[in-house]
Write a structure and sequence with these properties.
The chain has five helices and no strands. By secondary structure, it is mostly helical.
């Protein structure tokens, strides 16, 4: 945001006023989603969780993990755990 302000853009409230009606989401939430998407992309390229967190703009791995869990209901580390498929028959 500070980079935008230096370029003559309005403050955060001014950006939100223009962004939210068009995209139906506050810019702060959009940025969170963008960072999570960027982290997932990094993980798909074999980055570690910490590398993905830093490359996508999170301050650290716990910050990314907390955000990821709030959005999806599970931690990003669970993406790397082997999953067991159980078939139930009647």
């Amino acid at each position: 945001m500070s980079g935008l302000k230096r370029k003559g853009c309005p403050d955060k409230a001014g950006i939100d006023v223009r962004f939210a009606p068009v995209y139906a989401i506050p810019i702060s939430r959009f940025i969170v989603w963008w960072r999570v998407r960027a982290a997932i992309e990094q993980l798909s390229k074999s980055a570690t969780l910490t590398e993905a967190a830093h490359a996508s703009g999170f301050s650290d791995l716990p910050h990314m993990s907390k955000t990821f869990k709030q959005l999806f209901g599970f931690a990003p580390s669970s993406l790397f755990k082997p999953h067991t498929i159980k078939i139930h028959s009647n």
